[in-house]
Amino acid sequence: MENRCEVGPTGELSLFTDQLGDPICRVRHSPAYLMLVAEMVVVGGGEDKERREIVGIIRGCVKTVTCGTKLSRNSKNCPFKLPIYTKVAYILGLRVSPSHRRMGIGMKLVRGMEKWCGENGAEYSYMATENDNLASVELFTHKCGYSKFRTPSILVQPVFEHRVKSDKRVAVIKLAAADAEALYRRRFSATEFFPRDIDAVLKNKLNLGTFLAVPKGSPYAAAAGSWPGADEFLASQPESWAVLSVWNSKDVYTLEVRGASRVRRALARTTRAVDRALPWLRLPSVPEVFRPFGFHFLYGIGGEGPKAARMVRSLCGVAHNLAKEHGCGVVAAEVAGRDPLRLGIPHWERLSCAEDLWCIKRLGEEYSDGCVGDWTKSPPGLSIFVDPREF
């Protein structure tokens, strides 16, 4: 089914997914998940035997995330934001066989998945698609009652043959999972879509680590790996700092770009050969994306201070070199379109998506998310937390 359903404009370069034999790989690590399959009975064969043919699939998962904030006070002069959580369903991987489209199969699959999500307590359902995927946008917004919600940017950077040089003005510290959890909960739990089970994400075997960048001369850089704890760090934080985590999507599924001309393939091979032969020149090279390739996903990107974007760039360099060691083709990240840290994430415009479209729908009638009201009508914030289990 995946091979029959290309992703991308017809007649141009298309992206294909190899799920490595696990059709639920992209939802398996969520707290609750399901895959639905649409079948049709086909009569054929020498004895008019009946057989079933898969003509459509859809996947979904349910989790608890931050949908808004409320002000609280631990003292009269120190207000702070507390997260408001809601159960949300994520619908992905809707595929309908090209020979069975315009028959209502996609609609039935979406409705069936929404029913299961509602039974599992989801108050909202959302999905992501390309802005120019008119068929998907039409199905969800005009027929299934979804509304356009957020437009984050997917930023993709090739993994070169050479290693990226580290910034000598920045020190990078790798945090233990428990320390990373404390920092994320203390500083980022009010971020939209922050998963309440962040501990499960950080302790997952696919998580390759959380990295913190601080100025080279700060006391934390000279602490020789002694982490003071999130509360102490945030109470006396350096002027600028940044953090991100790395998820090993390479062991979940691989991608492949199809439809490239021989000229494009030859040019890509040439750039890699030159980069491999002359690594000291640090020439940007096109990775081997015309065969199945894996990638690492950067998530939990955050920071503070006037030089936070520079800190993020340094962390992306560390992530690039880690991806090179793992044999990945690209490194990807997804951030809110207005996120100021976006400027620190290296990427190629040709490989990236300036506006990924998230659509959302309210499944329940009652409001359990209090002062947020109807989340589907809330304005976007500066940042968003993208769960690596769903990318």
From TrEMBL:
Origin: domain of life: Eukaryota
Gene3D superfamilies: 3.40.630.30
Recorded family membership: Belongs to the acetyltransferase family.
Swiss-Prot/TrEMBL keywords: Acyltransferase, Transferase
Record-level Gene Ontology MF annotations: acyltransferase activity, transferring groups other than amino-acyl groups
Name assigned to this protein: N-acetyltransferase domain-containing protein
Pfam families named among the record's database cross-references: Acetyltransf_1 (PF00583)
InterPro entries, per database record: Acyl_CoA_acyltransferase, GNAT_dom, Plant_NAT
Residue ranges occupied by any N-acetyltransferase domain in the UniProt entry: 1-161
Keyword Transferase in annotation: yes
GO biological process: auxin-activated signaling pathway
Cross-referenced PANTHER family: ACYL-COA N-ACYLTRANSFERASES (NAT) SUPERFAMILY PROTEIN (PTHR47370), N-ACETYLTRANSFERASE HLS1-RELATED (PTHR47370:SF10)
